[in-house]
Amino acid sequence: MGYRFGGSAVAGIVAAATSIVGALPWFASPAHAQDPAQFYAGKSITFIVGYGAGASYDSGARLIGRYLGKYIPGKPNVVIQNMPGAGSMVAANQLYNASAKDGTVIGMFGRGLYLEALFGNPAVKFDPVKFNWIGSHGREVSFLVTGKDTGFKTVADIREREIILGASGPGADTHSFALVLRTLLDAKVKIVSGFPGQADAFLALDRGEVHGNAGATIGTVMALRPQWLKEKGLANFVVQLATERHPTLLQGVPLIMDFAKDDVDRGAMELAFARQGMAYKFAAPPGVPADRVEALRTGFRGAMKDSEFLADAARVNADVAAMEGEEIGKLVAAAYKMKPEVLTRAKAALTARE
User: Fold this and answer.
1) How far apart are the C-alpha atoms of 351 and 123, rounded to whole Å?
2) String of b and e for 260-286 (b: at least 16 CB within 10 Å)?
3) pLDDT tens digit string along 210-253?
4) Exposed, middle or buried: residue 177 (CB in 10 Å: 0-12, 13-18, 19+)?
5) Measuring CA to CA, which residue among 109, 69, 65 is closest to residue 285?
6) Core-most of 213, 229, 286, 351, by most CB within 10 Å?
7) pLDDT for 223
């Protein structure tokens, strides 16, 4: 036998239930009841870095990580976790798919991986547009560096005979930029992949196992081989790999943009090297509550103005050029709206077979 209630009876039951719940606040979900300061108080944030210790990503994450928690409401600790593998693809996939989506895990990975998603790399298990981008504390200029006794000193040299370059994996600068040299600069490039990070790749260069590295950055060299920049003749700097020359270093080293054959190639180069302007971007996974994303961004903004952070950055020659998460999101999304002919050329350059 069924039971039926009139409209007034239903209204009365609903009103009574609402009154009871309102009188008992502990019925509400704690996760939704807490503001960011309450949530983060006493907690730690895991900061995943997609490369091994010593590389520019690692040193950059540790630099910002020392100050980030200071300005996040609740002042959580920030703990660095290195997760190298496949040019940081392992870390990006982990952050997107398996990490907690409550604001306690963030990550920094290869600055060019968002293009691998655009170009349909099957190893990509994330949508870069859906990451909650927090910020980037700096920009970078990459370059092709070769061993002093290799004989590779100019662009003409790498066009005339085969150069062997060490790399991490698809999506990493070391791999992507080597492909750009081959496709857009007509260099005779052979890529040896599988190095977990630049520390290992530079050791291979020292031992003569490879001729050079096409993803070396000012930050990485200052961290791992500062003598290359301080003493002439210890290494050869062949070409700067960015959209703009470094303002003070590498004077006299040509810029790859100067070698563009036409507007399409120039556009492909700009797409390939746009990542350098947001070199150390980091993100939270999708699904993090909006107020916690904003709390993380607040922490980033505060850290960027911290006098001790700025002094630390100056000591390690890090170029502080902050870019906020919202702007990073716009730039990543804009890559998906490039002219078809530019996208086709850039894809051909950045995904060419080894």
Assistant:
1) 13
2) beeebbbbbbebbbbbbbbbbbbbbbe
3) 999 998 988 889 888 999 999 999 999 999 999 989 888 899 99
4) buried
5) 109
6) 213
7) 81
Question: How do beta strands 105-108 and 44-49 pair?
Answer: parallel
Give, in degrees to the nearest 5, the angle at Cα 137 between 136 and 140.
Answer: 90
Task: Determine the length of the chain.
Answer: 354
Q: Which domains does the chain have, with CATH numbers?
A: 36-139+278-339 (3.40.190.150), 142-275 (3.40.190.10)
For the stretch 158-199, pLDDT in tens is 999 999 999 988 778 899 899 999 999 999 999 999 998 888
Query: 180-189 burial, b if ≥16 CB within 10 A, otherwise e?
Result: bbbbbbebeb
The residues that bridge with 213 in the sheet, in sequence order, are 145
Residue 14's Cβ-count burial label (10 Å; 0-12, 13-18, 19+) is exposed
* Consecutive H or E run containing 173: helix 173-184
- For residue 147, list its beta bridge partners: 235
Closest CA to 167 of 131, 130, 106, 212: 212
pLDDT band of residue 351 (cuts 50, 70, 90) is: confident
Q: What share of the chain is helix, strand, coil (3-state, %, to 5)?
A: 50, 15, 35
Q: Is the CB of residue 90 less than 8 Å from the CB of residue 48?
A: no
- At 110, which amino acid appears? G
DSSP class of 352: -
| Cβ–Cβ under 8 Å, residues 142 and 215 | yes
Q: Which CA distances in Å does 266 have to 180, 235, 258, 269, 274?
A: 12, 28, 9, 5, 12
